[in-house]
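Narrative summary of target 7.
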Amino acid sequence: MPKKVKKTQTPVEKSSQKISKKPESKSEPNSEKVQTIAVIKTGGKQYLVKEGAEIKVEKLPDELKKIEFDDILHQKKVIAEIVDTKKGKKITGVKFKKRKGYLKFFGHRQTQTVLRILKIK
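Modeled conformation, tokenized:
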């Protein structure tokens, strides 16, 4: 059984000075850069992307260097470039039949394309 521990510390008294959580800035509040996001569909899947992000999608043809997608939500155009084509993680499986002496292992690595999102317009 764990022993009960007594609290020996006294609570700290609050100071009369107010601490501001955000530093005050003289610039306008709307001057911050707003990151635009988009939802693209490729390879039967949907991906939430923003500018500068790199995503892994199902294999796309290597002849294409830049690809243009349509945004599903906001009807924007998304321009991406192919960075790399490589294989994904290995997925293993087993085929087995009891009392028959049948046991087979198999593995599969899906080819994936790495995309970098250049612009959302």
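Residues 35-120 form one domain.
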